Amino acid sequence: MNYHALRIGALFLLTILSYGFYNAYLPITDPVESNYVLSAITMLKHNSWISPMIYDQVWYDKPPLTYWALMITYKLFGISDFTSRIPNTLVAGASVAFMYHMVYRMSKNVSISVLCAILLMSTLQFWYISHAVITDGFLFLFTLAIFGYSYLAFHNNDKASIIKAYIAAALAVITKGPVGILLPGLILVIYVCARYVVHRNDENYELSKDVKLLFNPLCLLAFICIASPWYIAMYSIHGEQFISGFLGLHNVDRALVSEHPKFNVWYYYLLIVPLSLLPWTPVICYQLKSINWKDDFDLFGIIWFVVIVLFYSLVATKYITYTLPAIIPCILWAAVKIGDLITDKETGEFTTSLKRFNYWVTLPLGIYYIIFTFATAFDKTLDSIPLVVGSFIIVCTIYIGGQYITSSFRLAIYAIVPLLTLYSAITITVSPILFNQSGLQFKTYIEDTSKPIYVYGSYYTSIVYYMDTTPTQVFVDTTDDPRWTEGKALMPTITKDSFLQQSNHNHGAYVIVPNKYDKDFTNTFPYPKAKLVNKTKIASIYKLQ
To answer: Residue 237 in contact with residue 48, Cβ under 8 Å?
Structure first.
């Protein structure tokens, strides 16, 4: 029996079942998820498989691969919250399974490979992104392939592996854009230079081999054949608009001009990355002191991590998802350290004395769980019952399972139960938080009206998805760069002055006003000009009289 393939299948199924079980109850949120969902729906409506669209207009925000996945899913299973999350759930399963496969190819160690897959599946940022309708889940899978195959290529001088890395980079480019090749390319160039510094005195090392491997013509040909057709097709259809809109505004300008200036601080990712690695941050930090710069993997991993974090720290526009690929070597370092913690130093066998393991792994994991549980007490909309029940299951599992843990493989298997319980409980608990970030919350109040709907100062794209009606955005004074205002506002818009002039002809119109603009709106439209219909946690709904 092929146990390797069996483990790959088991990890894939375990991930998609545990990640997908509650997806039907997770609303589509604003401002990001709703854009992808509405784009796929609009593209289906126009049968547009090349040009991304939204609000019945061509949109140059992202390449099409994520849209294609959503479109195919909608074609097969219909449009719903659950089906919208199917692609990223499947990609999460593929990433976890591929993490096991790649680490096994590197180490030939089943326990460490399975442990890496479990650690990835239970890392906070990976869990979050794998539940979201965004491009980063796809990008992570392809970047993981770039990482693994690139390391194998240079470690074994394997031409087949470097070709696979280039193919993965091509898929990344039609997922996220040029960064899919530019950033890994920069990392590999630095790695080749670093390998020369480290190994230049080794008899078996030749710089020319690394250079020829990196710039193999077959690799470049494979990359061009896969990545270029969509770009060529878009340029042939849209010409200069595609260059200025996609490459200009959504790539170069995004790097140079912050889309969200308040987040453009140099220490942004120094805060985000440690949080994204929870609950494994302590054990990863513990392993860092054992990094060996002369070891090929450690050298590659540290360059990979530092370059990604530094690159996105220098980029003006910052999102919490950008540095997700940086966690890849960290997961492997965590697995190695956990392996050390459960191994007797003298005999090299599994140790039943788990004192160090409990200190660096069990204790932080317990604190992590307690933080989530107590956090529910400060928000009345959150139900703490799933986390309380989950804690009971975890305690029972640890007590019963602890008596049967006699090997690192068994430890990895038993660890799955409390980890899946934890994240299943969190998934159930956070549903109200997502509801408060979704236009679904307004459906009760404006679903049946035939009158115009306005959103004052902001926009909720998910209203279009849930209600099949398109509100008009009212522009108010903003400090945002005008390039973003003009380039991203494809929805119907109206200026505040025009809105005021038309208000006498809009009797009965609904106006959704986010809390931050409520004072401005009530000063402009004091009662009885606008009557408060209802309030939600993030906005008020008014009706013009």
So the answer is: no
* pLDDT single digits (tens) 523-542: 887 777 888 888 888 898 88
Residues 233, 128: Cα–Cα separation, whole Å:
34
- Residue-wise pLDDT for 265-278, tens only, equals 888 899 999 999 98
Whole-number Å distance between alpha carbons of 402 and 449: 59
Rounded distance, CA 423 to CA 430, Å? Answer: 10
Q: How many residues does the chain have?
A: 545
DSSP string, 85-145: HHHHHHHHHHHHHHHHHHHHHHH--HHHHHHHHHHHHT-HHHHHHHHSSSSHHHHHHHHHH
Biggest CA–CA distance in the chain, Å, is 86
Phi/psi for 350 (5° steps) reads -60, 135
Beta pairing partners, 530? 544
Structure token pair of residue 157: 């001088």
Range with the largest mean pLDDT of 2-11, 225-234, 504-513: 225-234
**445-465: string of b/e by CB count within 10 Å (b at 16+)?**
bbeeeeebbbbbbbbbbbbbb
Helix axes 110-121, 124-131, angle to 10 degrees: 60
Measured CA to CA, the distance from residue 351 to residue 397 in angstroms comes to 20
- Which DSSP state fits 343? B
Encoding tokens for residue 336? 């190695």
Q: Is 345 exposed, middle or buried (0-12, 13-18, 19+ CB in 10 A)?
A: exposed
For the CA atoms of 213, 217, 223, 226, the dihedral, rounded to the nearest 10 degrees, stands at -140
- The answer to whether 439 touches 461, Cβ cutoff 8 Å, is yes
Q: Compute the distance between CA of residue 448 and CA of residue 511 in angstroms, rounded to an integer.
A: 15
Residue 118 pLDDT class (50, 70, 90 cuts): very high
Token look-up 């890496």 returns: 116
Beta bridge mates, 495: 475
| CB-based contact 222:173 (threshold 8 Å) | no
349-387 burial, b if ≥16 CB within 10 A, otherwise e?
ebbeebeebeebbeebbbebbeebbeebeeeeebebebb
Q: For residue 62, what is the enclosing H or E element?
A: none
Q: What is the 3-state secondary structure (H, E, C) of 452-518?
A: CEEEECCCCCHHHHHHCCCCEEEECCCCCCHHHHHHHCCCCEEEHHHHHHHHHHCCCCEEEEEHHHH
